[in-house]
Amino acid sequence: MNANLWQTQPLWVLLTWLPVPLGCALLALPASRAWGERLARPWVAWAFFLLTRVAFAVVVFGVFGHRSIDLVASHEPQGEAILAGKIPYRDFVSLYAPGFPYVLALAMSISHLWGALLVFVLADLGAFLALARLHGDAAPGPASPAWLYLAFPPVWYFEVRYAQDETLSSLFLALALLAAARGRGVRQGLALALGQLFTKPLFGAGAAPLLLTPRASWGARWAYVIPVGAIYLAMTVAGIPWSRDLRLEASAFGVGPTLWRLPEVWGHLELGRLAWAPEVVLVAVGFTRLWRRRADGVSFVAWMWGCHAALAPKLLPMYVVMVAPALAVWVGRAWREGRLAWWALYGLAMGSAWYADSGPLQGMLGPVGVAVGAVFMLAPVVLAAWLLLAVWREPAAR
């Protein structure tokens, strides 16, 4: 967001932030005794979808004429480049998977103004429907992955407010979860392969754990590895420098609400690519334990995300949307054990991090603003640690 607004229109900034805490309250509302039975109807979920996606988009794009920076500076130029016959990585910079610019080109052929948002909202809808089929019901409920995904504020807020693309990743991950639950290993692998090729490289943080669990079939693994490997091998042979921009991205440090942010801002700490080492070690330790306990892919994804959310050198708040379907399943399994409260608080923390890091943390609101900004930047790290502890304590599968 525009950091100058904190100085020129601070009340307006707070007003635009209010949907986040309000959404967190609505997320947990079906768990209450007073409202649980009243809200347990499918039409409530559909009304929520229309309110938070369609109506919210009309207000943001139609009434206020908002145009997100990513939409103008990244999505539209990539789509235009493809329509002009250019090749990703070779002719223009792209930090996304090789197929993503082609998705943008398709979106722009529909509408230059709102085509990208339409594609992201449709992907969001597809993820919700896949999770509803997984659970067998679209009605709101504290144990329903469909509702826990649908109502999670970072999903719809970042999607509409900033025209973020992570719901594409959500779609493919949700389809993979549905296929795995039905014993369709090859379909699971193909869904993950499509996600890896048409969203962004970080999609692997959700795909790899699902395939590394001892419960994953070899059909799923090969259905993922063969197409992904073939595409990247073909680009390498053709001399397309697909890794150039990714290497630059991997060298980023202290970006986003992770453990490294405050040391980078206040102490100018710079570890470069060495900062990946603690995360890699923690992932390996956790995966070893989960493998021995024969945990399923959802627990693997939860552990992977906890490590990445706490220790990644770069983590933008909207990245959580990519793994939101798996985390929603994990929360719904034991929502009474503090997971629902954690999910709501995590949504608040991730939905507020950009606001805290766009002015208050830098001193625009004085010492009090710095303190509040620091709290909001540390909150996702603390909640990621809680997630890791909860996954670590899960009982072994029988």
Overview of the structural elements:
The structure is a single chain. The chain is built from 21 helices and no strands. The protein has one domain (5-392). The protein has helices spanning 5-8, 10-17, 19-28, 36-39, 42-63, 69-83, 100-110, 115-135, 145-150, 153-161, 166-181, 185-198, 204-212, 218-237, 244-250, 261-267, 276-292, 297-311, 320-333, 339-356, 366-392. Helices cover 69% and strands 0% of the residues. The protein starts with a helix and ends in a 6-residue tail after the last helix. α3 packs antiparallel against α20 and α5 (42-63) packs parallel to α10. The chain is an all-alpha fold and 398 residues long. The chain is globular, with a radius of gyration of 20 Å. The model has no long low-confidence stretch (mean pLDDT 94).
